[in-house]
Amino acid sequence: MRPRGNKKREADKKNFKRALFVGIIATFTAIILISTIGSQKFGFFHSLALDILGPFQKEFSELTSKIQNTKQDYIDLLNVREENKNLWRELREARQTSHLNREALATNARLKNLLDLKDSTHTPSISANITGKDPSLWFRTIIIDRGSNDKVRKGMPVITPDGIVGQIFEVAANHSKVLLTIDPSSSIDILVQDSRARGILQGTGSIIHSLKYILKNVDVKEGDYIVTAGYGGIFPPGLQVGYISKITKKKRGMFQKVEVTSTVDFHTLEQVLVLLQPQPFPDSQ
Amino acid sequence: MTFIALTITGLLLLILQTTILTPNPLWYGSPDLLFILTAYLGYRANSLHGILILIPLSWFNDVFSGTVLGTYPLIYLSSFFLFKYVSEHMPVRKSLYQLPLIGAIYLIVYRLAHFWLGIILPNPLPPWSWPIILLKTVIMVILAIPLLRFFETIARRCEKLTNHSGNMLHIRSGNRFH
Q1: Residue A273 belongs to some domain of the structure
Q2: Which partner from A20, A258, B11, B104 sits 20 to 30 angstroms from A47, CA to CA?
Q3: Which residues from chain A sit within 8 angstroms of residue B24, using beta carbons?
């Protein structure tokens, strides 16, 4: 019986302690609640709680902020990478457009010059692009993108605003080969513009032509302009060819040795004008 | 297959040398790429197929360049036979070892062509200029290194593609004892 009585007493004691603890907590809570709600004052315990939890909160906030910043940085980095790619692409496109614009301006200027020349010549003409150049040691020819379909015929003069380029040498349906004035096979009847001295201008393969059959007693000087004479019927008269760059008078012989520099810049030749004039030798076509 | 591939390659080289590689009509640095193909064919192809490839190509070159028809067929065919003769009398047929020969044959053939054109043309030709011709020769020998490898690669790949004993070009081995 004794142990049973002891057990009961111990249980009662335990219940009492629990009830006391609950009561104290409840009372304490009630006091805090009543005092808080009643006075609406941020009291000591509030401050204590805030001071204890504040640093943790701060750390957590900073950690969260760091995580968010890192996440944002990563996202930004991805965006920046993408943006960088887009900007580079745009820059490349802009550069390309700028290059094309500059090219278009240059082409426009050249075509305008050709158009002015076309308007100024009374002979019907057609513009052409140079598509190929002769790489050989001995010949100086070019290929243009106009042929018999464009009424181009063998022998027709090919010019630029700067002067004579050459003449049509071979014709296909849509392309032609042009014999340049600088080709050694090229010979043109010319006049020295001031003295009206007549001679034959022969190509030498370089930018310098050789002017033949100028008598020693004829007054020609360096800088005189050379124009086509128009005698052969291939080139119309008065077209600019070049200017005299050097004169050598030897003791022997009847003629002066005259060098003529072409006024056409063959280094930058891109477009030309073909004069569609009737041919003096139709059989040669 | 090899025959067609090398002919098409030759045409592309011809277009290249008359456009991009010749920026203006007074440019002296344009290489004669077809001459390198001629050298390759002289070293590696049999006579019939070499001629069959070179005749249309040199004919096209006549169309694109020059005023005397027949100049290029004459230059390329004579060079081809010269390469063929010399390569058959050399111990090593591997074309890369024969680079100096390309320069030498180029100089000989072009000097003879200059002489021949000087006779048939009524007007005098531009004077023979050693600096220009040597510059062209050096450029060509330098370009011959990658181009010979390129032709070799084309020929080998075409052989693999066709993969039969009746190879059109009959490309020979680089070793004369094979």
Answers
A1: yes
A2: A20
A3: 133, 266-269
Partner residue facing B114 (CB), from A133, A138, A182:
A138
Q: B19 vs A132: CB contact, 8 Å cut-off?
A: yes
Count of domains forming chain A = 1
Q: Which residue from A223, A186, A103 is spatially nearest to B25, judged by alpha carbons?
A: A186
| Over residues B127-154, mean pLDDT | 91
Q: Which two tokens stand for residue A129?
A: 């692009």
Residues with Cβ within 8 Å of B115's Cβ and at least 6 positions away in sequence, in order, are none
Q: Does B67 sit within 8 Å of A139, measured CB to CB?
A: yes
Give the model confidence (pLDDT) of B64-85 as tens digits: 888 888 889 999 999 999 998 8
Query: Which residues of chain A register pLDDT less than 70?
Result: 1-4, 32-33, 35-43, 45-51, 53-54, 57-58, 60-61, 120-121, 279-285
Establish if A53 belongs to a structural domain: no
Looking at this predicted complex, what is its ipTM?
Answer: 0.84
3-class secondary-structure state, position A267: coil
Spatial CA neighbour of A232 closest among A279, A195, A193, A272: A279
What pLDDT is recorded for position B177?
46
How many other CB atoms sit within 10 Å of the CB of residue A261?
A: 16
Give the chain B residue whose CA is nearest to the CA of A204.
B126
Averaged over B133-159, what is the pLDDT?
91
- List the structure tokens of A103: 């090219």
**What's residue A80's pLDDT?**
85
Structural domains in chain B, CATH included, are: 2-162 (1.10.1760)
The pLDDT assigned to A50 comes to 61
Q: Examine residue A186 and state whether it is found in any structural domain, yes or no.
A: yes
The C-alpha atoms of residue A210 and residue A200 are separated, in whole angstroms, by 8
Q: How many CB pairs under 8 A join A and B?
A: 88
At A236, which CATH number?
Answer: 2.40.10.340
Q: Inter-chain contact A267–B24, Cβ cutoff 8 Å?
A: yes
